[in-house]
Design brief:
about 300 residues, mainly alpha, 13 helices, about 75% helix, about 0% strand, globular, disordered N terminus, disordered C terminus
């Protein structure tokens, strides 16, 4: 939703509730998406979410596709590829491991990006804290309730894609208005996952209700949180925004518990807390880092 639209509709929401609602929306959308996996599969669900989100964002922001320059195309295409890979691998990850743990492991990508290149001991400490959390989640052989190793690696890869998405998004934002850039990027994200969707779509069982649920995932995971985050970013310093976003692993864990019945062990809860603390700490002490916005 553009600023003009927000103004016309009188959308006024305090920034901190906007951030919290954004996180609930994103993780609620992920929980809803995971509920579709038995009927559609993770790959088809990711493709459906990206396709519908692209259509919604194109309708809202109406980017001038015919007038984009070569430099704009060169920025938006890799951004979209990173976005598509992030969403696909995250969905494949949470098909194998609990939602909250998938979010926790994915958050390592933005955390590493926040402290990359720093030589300060304090920033190194946050990496150690996050690493301790990852070690607690590592599926050691014979450990009761050990996680699926493929799911862990997919979540970490999704985190790497998230870091790339942040870097590429910063470049894109200097060439295209944010809403238009996300809308066009979502199209290329859809193209990125399309080959994988085509190999799995034959096993999916589409019904009108599932398509409606897919639209709900697209709105909850993309359109609504993007609007809420823009409201928050207009009023909050990026450092405050980043610290609040550090609650997202905990929010994802709660969404998995409430909507999917996914219960974590005490060690897994501790891991979530360590990664969230490391993310908040790195944001608080960083000089100037981009906040980890998720599309």
């Amino acid at each position: 939703m553009s600023d003009a639209h927000a103004g016309r509709r009188g959308l006024t929401l305090p920034p901190i509730p906007a951030v919290l609602l954004s996180m609930v929306s994103i993780q609620g959308g992920a929980a809803l998406a995971k509920g579709l996996f038995p009927a559609l599969g993770a790959t088809v669900t990711a493709g459906l979410r990206l396709t519908l989100a692209a259509l919604v964002l194109l309708a809202v922001f109406r980017p001038p596709l015919a007038r984009l320059s070569r430099a704009q195309w060169a920025a938006v295409i890799p951004y979209g590829v990173a976005l598509g890979a992030m969403n696909l691998t995250f969905y494949l990850a949470i098909a194998r491991i609990p939602l909250g743990l998938g979010v926790t492991l994915e958050f390592v990508g933005p955390l590493v990006l926040a402290v990359a290149g720093s030589r300060r001991l304090l920033d190194f400490l946050w990496v150690v804290v996050a690493a301790a959390g990852i070690v607690l989640l590592t599926p050691w052989s014979g450990t009761p309730g050990a996680l699926d190793m493929t799911g862990v690696l997919l979540a970490l890869f999704a985190g790497a894609c998230w870091a790339a998405y942040i870097l590429l998004g910063g470049r894109l934002s200097r060439l295209l208005p944010e809403g238009q850039g996300v809308a066009v990027g979502m199209v290329f994200a859809t193209f990125t996952v399309l080959p994988f969707v085509l190999t799995s779509v034959g096993e999916a069982r589409f019904t009108p209700a599932l398509l409606l649920a897919g639209l709900g995932v697209a709105i909850l995971s993309s359109a609504l949180p993007y609007t809420l985050e823009m409201i928050a970013l207009r009023a909050l310093p990026s450092r405050t925004f980043g610290i609040l976003m550090s609650l997202e692993p905990a929010v994802g864990t709660l969404m998995g518990l409430v909507f999917l019945g996914e219960r974590l062990t005490l060690l897994q809860w501790l891991a979530v807390g360590l990664v969230s603390a490391a993310s908040a700490g790195s944001t608080l002490t960083a000089r100037r880092v981009p906040p980890p916005i998720e599309a």
